[in-house]
Amino acid sequence: MLSLQGEQIYLRALEPTDLDFLYQLENDTSIWEISGTIKPYSKKVLRLYLENAHRDIYEVKQLRLCICNLEDKCIGLIDVFDFDPKNRRAGIGIVIANPENRNKGLGAEALELLCDYTFSVLDLHQLYANILEENTSSIHLFEKLGFERIGVKKEWIRTNTGFKNEIMFQKIRKDVP
Q1: Name one GO molecular function term (predicted).
Q2: pLDDT tens per residue, the chain (177 residues)?
């Protein structure tokens, strides 16, 4: 049986008790650049989001899971987005909230668990990720887990200081046509 538990972390569905964590993360301006966020979220809006988080991936075309350590503390989020069951593909994104928890294998474990889940349970053929060119830690993570660099979107993300390139990565499931 497939488990969404690794050695250091596990993945779980969003719960109403995640409101404060979600509020803090979604309003962290340092990650707005990678999330596409351009304005703060209120707790009211996030509460409504949590109330609808149970909706099926086939209906809403996305899935967000909490990355929790073995002490049951939420340390990040991992997302499946642009879910396309006809073409058996989806985008994937990950954020570990506290920089002190980064580069310790937690993101790699979460990403590996989610890749296994999307390939075996959702029967996807491929996953893709978009990563800012300067985000060397994320680039290393995705390459380590078998994602291949397939292109560069030039000056794709607008920031306060100008435009940044975004690299597109893809992982194709090799065992099933």
Answers
A1: acyltransferase activity, transferring groups other than amino-acyl groups
A2: 357 999 999 999 999 999 999 999 888 877 777 777 778 889 898 988 888 888 889 899 999 999 999 999 999 999 999 999 999 999 999 999 999 999 999 999 999 999 999 999 999 999 999 999 999 999 999 999 999 999 999 999 988 889 999 999 999 998 866
* Domain regions of the chain by residue span: 9-172
Q: How far is CA 36 from the centre of its chain?
A: 13
Beta carbons of 94 and 110 less than 8 angstroms apart: yes
> Which of 39, 5, 32 is CA-nearest to residue 113?
5
76's enclosing H/E stretch is strand 74-84
Q: Which fold has domain 9-172?
A: Aminopeptidase (3.40.630)
Q: Residue 86: CB partners within 8 Å, gap ≥ 6?
A: none
pTM of the predicted model as reported, rounded to 2 decimal places: 0.91
